[in-house]
């Protein structure tokens, strides 16, 4: 930066009194700070680097104190930079503000292939840091491994699962997949079956790969229990919110199976827990029902989560999470964005594939296009439904997609009615005979009665279409629910 920019930055700090993801403030009126290694490492390990600012004392309420000696400060900062691996090359700028000297040291971000940058005296495991907000945090083993995996082109989806055998794969799915590949590449017919399996990443050293188990396994979770989807419906806008009956989750399901089975069941979970926006055209009086969230966008988000998540040993204990709040839906995928991809490049730049073998199989078995169209599809579908732009976040050790809902029609600007996706008329017909909780759960094929009660029965009772046989004892085990004749 030039002198004028440093003066402008100084005034910004004095006004805002805060640090940032790319800004660390250090007091230096009494000498050079003795330990800059953590920040030198974290700035070097993030895209865009960061700025070390010397001359304001945060502990004194962001007081402008200046630096003790500009020349000596720069010399000693450089000495600390040279203790880093690889060495950090800081760019210094000095200026005078209100009669005192201030100094900045710009720390460039390293190329991905050179990361992590760490303090030589602490070693790679304890001396590598990452920036989280305005704090420097020691890198986890997973974060260190992710750099190594990208640099060495390691693909965890191709690793063999030691306890698995070929007979643990669904023979029908495997046969159809191999037949399709042989049709695409006739030369495969000349190879032995085992060699074809190796070339198609179905096996490694005679053992099924993770990609094969997750796409074709009879029961993948028998080998990796947490490679699944956990789906919950929260009655409020934050985890921990409860409803009037102190119920924490209106619906809660662990979704297992192959990737295609997980995707299908997760979409079904969303469908039964979503509301329907009903728009009445003022001109024609015609009614139009619109899902709370577009199914095509949900499908792409869930597919991306299971196909592009991190499958290393460091994250195989973490499932994909699907959370429906009152105002939004979140899909959490273990692992950061892979390689050089940033959030700003999503849907624009062509990404590196973290799981090429798994993605290739999923393309055949889940109809995933694998043509980098997922993000544009989500954005397009949300826009067409009059909903806010999806939010993509590359959080520490996870990638999160958030869809926000809306109860306002973009066309009319007026509130719309919200109705359950389930056909209430069928429930009313079923309850012409007084029904127990268990009977209603079985009829609706839902495992949680609190969800049924809050989503359907409350509305029907309030509208006078249904009644409780024991209205003074709503929680009685003898309670029955009956349609008002």
UniProtKB/TrEMBL annotation:
It comes from the Bacteria. InterPro entries: RecG_C_sf, Schlafen_AlbA_2_dom, Schlafen_AlbA_2_dom_sf. It holds the Pfam family HATPase_c_4. Residues 19-138 form the Schlafen AlbA-2 domain. This is AAA family ATPase. It comes from Selenomonas caprae. The lineage of its organism: Bacteria, Bacillati, Bacillota, Negativicutes, Selenomonadales.
């Amino acid at each position: 930066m030039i002198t004028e920019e440093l003066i402008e930055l100084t005034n910004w700090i004095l006004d805002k009194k805060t640090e940032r993801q790319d800004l660390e403030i250090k007091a230096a009126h009494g000498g050079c700070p003795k330990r800059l290694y953590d920040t030198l490492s974290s700035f070097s390990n993030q895209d865009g680097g960061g700025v070390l600012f010397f001359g304001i004392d945060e502990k004194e309420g962001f007081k402008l104190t200046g630096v003790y000696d500009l020349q000596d400060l720069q010399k000693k900062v450089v000495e600390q930079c040279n203790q880093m691996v690889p060495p950090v090359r800081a760019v210094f700028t000095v200026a005078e503000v209100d009669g005192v000297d201030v100094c900045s040291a710009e720390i460039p971000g390293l190329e991905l292939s050179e990361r992590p940058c760490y303090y030589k005296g602490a070693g790679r495991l304890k001396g590598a840091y990452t920036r989280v907000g305005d704090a420097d945090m020691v890198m986890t083993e997973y974060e260190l491994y992710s750099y190594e995996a990208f640099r060495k082109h390691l693909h965890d989806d191709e690793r063999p699962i030691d306890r698995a055998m070929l007979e643990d794969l669904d023979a029908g799915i495997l046969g159809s997949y191999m037949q399709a590949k042989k049709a695409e590449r006739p030369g495969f017919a000349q190879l032995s079956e085992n060699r074809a399996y190796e070339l198609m990443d179905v096996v490694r050293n005679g053992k099924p790969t993770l990609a094969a188990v997750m796409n074709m396994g009879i029961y993948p979770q028998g080998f990796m229990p947490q490679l699944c989807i956990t789906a919950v419906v929260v009655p409020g806008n934050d985890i921990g919110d409860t409803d009037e009956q102190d119920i924490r989750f209106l619906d809660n399901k662990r979704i297992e199976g192959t990737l295609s089975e997980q995707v299908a069941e997760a979409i079904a979970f969303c469908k039964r827990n979503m509301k329907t926006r009903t728009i009445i055209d003022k001109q024609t009086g015609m009614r139009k029902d619109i899902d709370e969230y577009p199914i095509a966008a949900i499908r792409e988000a869930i597919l991306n989560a299971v196909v592009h998540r991190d499958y290393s040993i460091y994250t195989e204990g973490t499932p994909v999470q699907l959370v429906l709040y009152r105002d939004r839906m979140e899909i959490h995928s273990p692992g950061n964005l892979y390689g050089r991809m940033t959030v700003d490049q999503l849907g624009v730049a062509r990404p590196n594939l973290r799981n090429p073998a798994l993605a290739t199989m999923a393309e055949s078995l889940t109809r995933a296009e694998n043509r980098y169209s997922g993000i544009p599809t989500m954005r397009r579908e949300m826009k067409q439904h009059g909903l806010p732009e999806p939010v993509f976040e590359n959080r520490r050790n996870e990638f999160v997609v958030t869809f926000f809902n809306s109860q306002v029609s973009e066309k009319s600007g007026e509130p719309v009615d919200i109705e359950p996706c389930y056909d209430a008329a069928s429930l009313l017909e079923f309850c012409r005979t007084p029904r127990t909780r268990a009977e209603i759960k079985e009829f609706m094929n839902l495992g949680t009665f609190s969800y049924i009660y809050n989503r359907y029965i409350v509305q029907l009772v309030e509208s006078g279409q249904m009644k409780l046989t024991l209205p003074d004892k709503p929680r009685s085990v003898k309670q029955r629910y009956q349609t008002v004749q």
